[in-house]
Amino acid sequence: MFYPKYRLRRLRRTENLRRLIRETQLSVDHLIYPLFVVPGKDRREEISTMPGCYRFSLDKLRSEIKEIEDLGIPAVLFFGIPSQKDEVGSEAYADKGIIQEAIRATKEVSSDLIVITDVCLCEYTSHGHCGIPKNGEIDNDSTLEILSSVALSQVRAGADMVAPSDMMDGRVAAIRERLDEEGYSHIPIMSYAAKYCSGFYGPFREAAESAPRFGDRRSHQMDPPNSDEAMREIAQDIEEGADIVMVKPALAYLDIIYRAKSEFGYPLAAYNVSGEYSMIKAAAAKNWIDEKRIVLEILTSIKRAGADMILTYFARDVARWLA
Ligand code: PBG
């Protein structure tokens, strides 16, 4: 049917007509809020590159967790900034490590909130790399052992789900095997399956103090021009036992999100990363854009592309706006 018999504008005339026709619904149900945790007391420090985001010490974290729960956000993702860094990132798998303590503190105030932990070494290593360097390169297989120890120690502390973000080959299988052996076969893995080597992580690296001291992450994170390769990454992670696969970043990779959902029909997360957040904050601070409108538009687009859930620093704002 074509014009003049058919007029698409007929169903756009009023808000109620538009509501009836609306295909994609943004909901608080599908949001995951990332949080940064630091040692010490009475710390709630705004991250200079990410206005509106904070680093919390454990005491301050507790009240933050209550608010997040009251807003109806179902899950948080924890990043830890340890007091000490070393060559192998040992605080990442220490029983009294910052993340392990943050998980316990969270569980004291909320048993329902889903606690997801980032499994990576870059925040914990003195060199800032996601794995163990050997002869100037990140050594894949020796890193796997440490990563599975990190995941195990987080789960022992009470994490409900682990999210490996290092992009080593075989990490999902290594973590799955270790968790199963230790009696945690019920704990899901959300794998950062297609994680690109992106300039959009800039503000995060300041927030997490995780910028590499030498070199970069190009030898393990994906090359942005590639799309077929992302499908191979996702296929491998599913084969290795990932329960949820992730595409990261989100906004500049909507095609990857769309392909991933169409080709695999698997639970899919998209990470609306720090650079995507900070760009909007900066433009909004100058009154160049309408922040709320743009955030809702972008997050809806990420869902429309095919994401089932979104990790976003806007989760708190969105929960409030949608309430
Ligand atoms: C690695 C990790 C990074 C992010 C999440 N997990 C940083 C990186 O790979 O350099 C980026 C998140 C963001 O930019 O919001 N631990």
Automatic annotation (TrEMBL):
Catalytic reaction annotation: 2 5-aminolevulinate = porphobilinogen + 2 H2O + H(+)
Keywords: Heme biosynthesis, Lyase, Magnesium, Metal-binding, Porphyrin biosynthesis, Zinc
Binding-site residues, 5-aminolevulinate 1: R205, R217
Annotated catalytic residues: K195 (schiff-base intermediate with substrate), K248 (schiff-base intermediate with substrate)
Binding site for Mg(2+): E233
One GO CC annotation: cytosol
Residues binding 5-aminolevulinate 2, per UniProt: S274, Y313
UniProt cross-references to InterPro entries, sorted A to Z: ALAD, ALAD_AS, Aldolase_TIM
Annotated residues for binding of Zn(2+): C120, C122, C130
Gene3D superfamilies: Aldolase class I
Metal-binding keyword on record: yes
Record EC number: 4.2.1.24
Functional summary from the UniProt entry: Catalyzes an early step in the biosynthesis of tetrapyrroles. Binds two molecules of 5-aminolevulinate per subunit, each at a distinct site, and catalyzes their condensation to form porphobilinogen.
Quaternary context: Homooctamer.
Family statement drawn from the similarity comment of this UniProt entry: Belongs to the ALAD family.
Name of this protein: Delta-aminolevulinic acid dehydratase
Organism: Candidatus Hakubella thermalkaliphila
Upper classification of the organism: Bacteria, Bacillati, Actinomycetota, Actinomycetota incertae sedis, Candidatus Hakubellales
